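#struct-queue
[09:14] JT: dropping the first one here, sequence first, then the structure tokens:
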Amino acid sequence: MLDLSFQQLLLRAGGVLLLSLVHGIALVLIARALGNKRPQYEGRLTINPFQHLDVLGAMALILFSYGWGRPVEVDGMSPRKRLFLALGSLLATLLVTLLLANALWSLGAIFPGSTAATVTAFARIYSEIAAGFIALNWFPLLPLTGGLLMPAISRPLSNWARRHHVLVTLCLLALILSGAVGRVLDPLRLALTSFISAASFA
């Protein structure tokens, strides 16, 4: 767990809200482009970040830089389209993160003193959170974005995970809390963070 001040906690919470919105909208728009409008009909095509937020996943992101958003339901979608949806939404999240980080960095150069420092800090914190989110969510496990691929990998396993989604979610949270996820994924998260920083803050 990070040693967080109140200001850092607020900045990280804001970063998680922004990330939830970015990734949630990406999921809905790509699903719609692939012919599945169920997420849109379920009210997910909205700029309200709380509609895309998973409470436990958000808490994990704030405190540990690893977490997840609210999954989308896309019953009837082919395995190939599920692959495009999962990987496409994560790639879109990375691209939008690069754009946002650049925009925030530019704003930070305009504002004076403490405001500039806050904007720049938010840009870095958002980039770090987004990197951890992307590093974790390509795994084909519910409730992660990669969990969209579970029916294509194993329908029985997918059905079991859906029936026991609370247990699966708690196990994933326990792995994050224990530091096991960090020990495995920190090199990838740090590499993504460095890539975003090099592209945005240079």
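[09:21] JT: and here's the second one, same format:
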Amino acid sequence: PGTFGTLGGVGIYGLFIFLGLYSPWVMLGVAVLLTCVGGVLGGWMERRYSSSDPSCVVLDEVAGYLVSVVVFVEGFSPIWVGLVAFVLFRVLDIWKPPPVGWAERLSGGWGVMADDLCAGVMVSGGIHLFLWLM
């Protein structure tokens, strides 16, 4: 479910690129909006399915991916950035290195969202660092 949920984020990212509406600020704004919705509904979903971070909840992956493509560097293909972000985001979301794994331990709806947002920030930071070094 996580990979397919992330593909939802890829679709939103691609749509904004296709429509010529992509900007890092727009992606960040959409991610914040989805995070607020997920933070409120995530706790309800945990109670409904008696599970922490139920697999049917994928809004966290969408928001986390959109954070990962918040790249403020001009001159690089947004398609390249989107593909690299997808791979790195999935690796971090599955592997859950610190602090991603720590964020997953938070309770409630915000905990559902936190690990994916943390992974998204790490991916975006990694892409920025790589592009800066280039």
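[09:30] RK: nice, looked through the second one.
[09:31] RK: DSSP finds six helices and no strands in the chain.
[09:31] JT: good to know. The mean pLDDT is 91.
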